[in-house]
Amino acid sequence: MNKAQLIVSRSDKNIYRDGKNLVKVFEANYSKADVLNEALNHARVEETDLRIPGLNAVQVVDGKWAIVLDYIEGDTLQSLMDAHPEKEDEYLNLFVDLQRTILSKKVPMLNKLKDKMQGRISAADLDATARYDLHTRLDSMPKHTHLCHGDFNPTNVIITKDGTPYIIDWAHATQGNSSADVAVSYLTFYLAGKRELGDKYLKLYCKKSDTAIQYVQRWIPIVAASRLSKSKPEEKEFLHSWIDVVDYE
Question: Model-level pTM?
């Protein structure tokens, strides 16, 4: 780590390039269980045929837990979309195709998405009536076992120089309903201020997968509520606007 290059600095972790490795060093107060769960999620997804960085080690660096992965040389899909707006449709098609490939996989040892969402809704800053409605609505949604990324957005796709896409950041991976994962991506576009692109993404995904837009929209209040307990202060008002405890119209 002496010659490691800092790539990203966040409040809870620093990410370095160390030769052929990418090293995620978590802050000392970061939950050890969460670090180990992220590594386990990654290892389980790595057993599929998806292109993801290899997991090389989980170790302690200067008293802090760290995950060591292959470093993937390339540009994020988001940076390419920003640099080449004229290729937006091409990149969005690639994004949707990658997500559909992810959702076609099964990783039966992953945690259940519904269980995670139920816990998050219980912890959300909502009154008992709203929580009850959301718990009931979530329980009524179809139970599936598709691989869900949990934070699939264009910053989590790396495109190498030869055009090969790699999917990164599997910390939130679960197994569950595909449309819930699509609703997560849709809200992520909105939270990033890319509302038109989010609407375009949702229409394209539903067209390619022959999924009713209304079905994905039923997940949006549930997903918004499940994100509330972990959201940034500036996101809370927006997320609350989606939690209307009536069917989305």
Answer: 0.94
